[in-house]
Amino acid sequence: MGCLFAIVALITPRFILFILWLFTNYLNTAFSSGWWGLLGFFFLPTTTIAYAIAQNEFTTVTGGIEAMGIVLIVLGFVIDVGMLGGSGRGVARKT
């Protein structure tokens, strides 16, 4: 059951990015180049979603990102790193 939860946790952000790319213009307005979105899809999907939300919803008049957007991006990064590092902690406990 734990493996199923891990697989769903790893696939869900990528599925959301795919749906956003397929049906909306949300990612195109956030990224000037498609390469950043593609790299984010493979390496940091939750951070990519958080950045797209910050760019589309929390942008100032001058083009910068508001503080809430920065908090959202940091939270997305912490979630991505936590998903990667969580498996190592479980392995160390068993040995």
Report on the architecture of this protein.
The chain is mainly alpha-helical. The chain has one domain. The chain is 81% helix and 0% strand. The protein contains 5 helices and no strands. The protein has helices spanning 2-23, 26-30, 34-42, 45-57, 67-94. Helix 1 runs parallel beside helix 4, helix 3 (34-42) packs across helix 4 and helix 4 (45-57) runs antiparallel to helix 5 (67-94). The longest helix has 28 residues, at 67-94. The chain is globular, with a radius of gyration of 15 Å. The model has no long low-confidence stretch (mean pLDDT 86).
Which strand-content bin applies to the residues? Answer: under 5%
Largest sheet: none
Which radius of gyration do the C-alpha atoms yield? 15 Å
**Helix fraction?**
over 70%
The run of helices and strands is: HHHHH
Q: How many discrete domains?
A: 1
Distance between the termini: 21 Å
List how many beta strands DSSP finds: 0
Tell me, rounded to a whole number, the average pLDDT.
86
Unreliable parts: none
The gist of it:
The chain has one domain.
List the helices and strands and how they pair.
Layout: H1 2-23, H2 26-30, H3 34-42, H4 45-57, H5 67-94
What are its keywords?
95 residues; mainly alpha; 5 helices
